[in-house]
TrEMBL record:
Statement: the UniProt record of this protein carries the keyword Flavoprotein: no
Annotated GO CC locations: ATP-binding cassette (ABC) transporter complex
ABC transmembrane type-1 domain: residues covered: 18-207
UniProt subcellular location: Cell membrane
An example molecular function term from Gene Ontology annotations: transmembrane transporter activity
Upper classification of the organism: Archaea, Methanobacteriati, Methanobacteriota, Stenosarchaea group, Methanomicrobia
Protein name: Amino acid ABC transporter permease
Alphabetized Pfam families for the sequence: BPD_transp_1 (PF00528)
Protein biosynthesis in keyword set: no
Length: 224
């Protein structure tokens, strides 16, 4: 009974950690799409220097653990540039930059799956290259990319817990603080784990429902 009372008493504090965790994930996904999609377009349609620069970016961010990136930006790059960002913003930016490297490859594969003939047909109708990409290629590519992109949500959700290392008061950090105050270890960390599982399940279920709603017949599982 005492454990249940502790969980009830501390739940508002834990809930604020859930809100911060979801804020990290949402911010990172927005940054990831905002950077990943242009990078994908650059890799498919860009010049050699553009493709090379993007490839270096992808290689760098996919080659380092998130924890190393957090320390690099929080204690190194941002201070060296004269920026003093709060830990939450650094965590969101780093997760977003890291996620963009992976998302760009998902988008690139989806764009390349569209037949080149569609670009040719759009150009023959008088569309510019930009108009063809915006109106013909991207609407199809984004729908094809959704199943692969959906994996980013649980990945960023789990990686968000690493932000405790720079002082972000997310779910894991607050769970640890509750443990240090109550000396109740297993139930608190178990509750933390259950919350992460529930957040992952609810989020991925919602994305998969959207995926089913907008999927293109003939592409991917369930296509006909």
């Amino acid at each position: 009974m005492m454990v249940i009372e502790i969980l009830i008493d501390w739940f508002p504090y834990l809930f604020s950690g859930i809100v911060l965790t979801l804020g990290l994930v949402a911010s990172a996904l927005i940054i990831g799409v905002g950077l990943g999609l242009p990078m994908a377009l650059g890799q498919v349609y860009g010049s050699l220097p553009v493709r090379t620069g993007i490839s270096i970016y992808v290689w760098f961010f996919r080659g380092l653990p998130v924890l190393v990136l957090l320390f690099l930006f929080y204690f190194g790059i941002f201070p060296a540039l004269g920026f003093d960002f709060p830990a939450f913003y650094v965590g969101a930016v780093v997760l977003g930059l890291w996620g963009a490297a992976y998302q760009s490859q998902v988008f690139r594969g989806a764009i390349q799956s569209i037949s080149e003939g569609q670009m040719t047909a759009a150009r023959s109708l008088g569309m510019s290259r930009f108009q063809a990409i915006r109106s013909v290629i991207l609407p199809q590519a984004m729908r094809i990319a959704l199943p692969g992109w959906s994996n980013q949500y649980p990945e960023i959700l789990t990686e968000s817990s690493v932000c405790y290392a720079i002082g972000v008061a997310e779910l894991l950090t607050r769970s640890s603080q509750i443990v240090s105050q109550t000396y109740v270890t297993l139930p608190i960390y178990l509750a933390c784990a259950v919350i992460f599982i529930l957040l992952s399940y609810v989020g991925t279920t919602g994305i998969h429902m959207l995926e089913k709603k907008i999927e293109i017949p003939g592409f991917g599982p369930g296509g006909s």
